[in-house]
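queue> pop job 88
queue> type: inverse folding (structure -> sequence)
queue> payload:
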């Protein structure tokens, strides 16, 4: 059955399923190591900072990155007509994917900050729970719930 034969709700469900699968595939061992490296670098840069202060710095940095991505993906809307179409299709897909990537990175960074000895499999489980909750909440909000 092709995507064109599916109802909008089924297409959205397929999209969310694919997005979740792709999000989980982006979390590799290298991502975990990179998150650990970022946390270690931050600890070295701010040795007197508390764990909560370091978490605040990590969160603030991801917020700035998310804002920059949002600005870039929304910028085509400044071009009337075609720009709006591009932003609503391509821009939205890129924006969603990048936001989940940033969210995954932040979850890994916070895990490495607060529980650095947690096993990789458990880190993946936490990432799945957080990402799954986020996708579910977004879906409820988009349906007016």
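queue> result:
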């Amino acid at each position: 059955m092709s995507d064109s034969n599916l109802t909008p709700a089924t297409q959205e469900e397929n999209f969310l399923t694919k997005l979740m699968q792709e999000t989980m595939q982006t979390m590799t061992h290298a991502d975990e190591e990179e998150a650990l490296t970022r946390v270690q670098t931050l600890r070295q840069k701010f040795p007197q900072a508390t764990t909560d202060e370091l978490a605040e710095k990590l969160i603030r940095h991801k917020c700035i990155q998310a804002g920059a991505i949002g600005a870039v993906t929304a910028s085509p809307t400044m071009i009337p007509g075609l720009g709006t179409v591009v932003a609503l299709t391509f821009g939205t897909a890129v924006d969603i994917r990048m936001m989940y990537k940033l969210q995954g990175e932040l979850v890994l960074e916070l895990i490495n900050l607060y529980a650095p000895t947690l096993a990789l499999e458990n880190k993946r489980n936490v990432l799945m729970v957080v990402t799954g909750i986020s996708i579910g909440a977004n879906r409820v909000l988009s349906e007016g719930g």
